[in-house]
């Protein structure tokens, strides 16, 4: 088990400091990251907390999964590794550009 936790269903008012203080009840908090929208800067309602050890992470899951914070019931579980998103793709499925050099001539 990894010590990095996914924390979901967060209120938009939740701060990294508030989350850190909450999870410190379960042990040493290494890092806290709230995920924010790139354009608006607004929280996306989830984040990650890295605990100091696997046992502290397990304790945090036991303490805070289904815990109510800012009128929201939290989802806390072990964070999954990020999936490969692949590199840059030229074709996004939009309309195809015509190549006028390859016209059929009748």
Brief sketch in words of this structure:
The chain has 106 residues and is α+β, with helices and mostly antiparallel strands. It has helices spanning 16-23, 54-64; strands spanning 4-8, 29-36, 43-51, 68-69, 72-73, 75-78.
Could you give the order of the helices and strands? EHEEHEEE
Low confidence ranges: none
Compute the gyration radius: what is it? 21 Å
Major sheet size, sense and barrel closure: 4 strands, antiparallel
Helix count, per DSSP? 2
Instruction: Order the strands across the largest sheet as they lie in space.
Output: 2-3-1-6
In the CATH hierarchy, the third-tier topology is known as Alpha-Beta Plaits
The number of E-state strands comes to 6
Percent of residues in helices comes to 10-25%
Strand content is 25-35%
End-to-end separation in angstroms reads 67 Å
Features:
4-stranded antiparallel sheet; 28% strand; 106 residues; single chain; Alpha-Beta Plaits
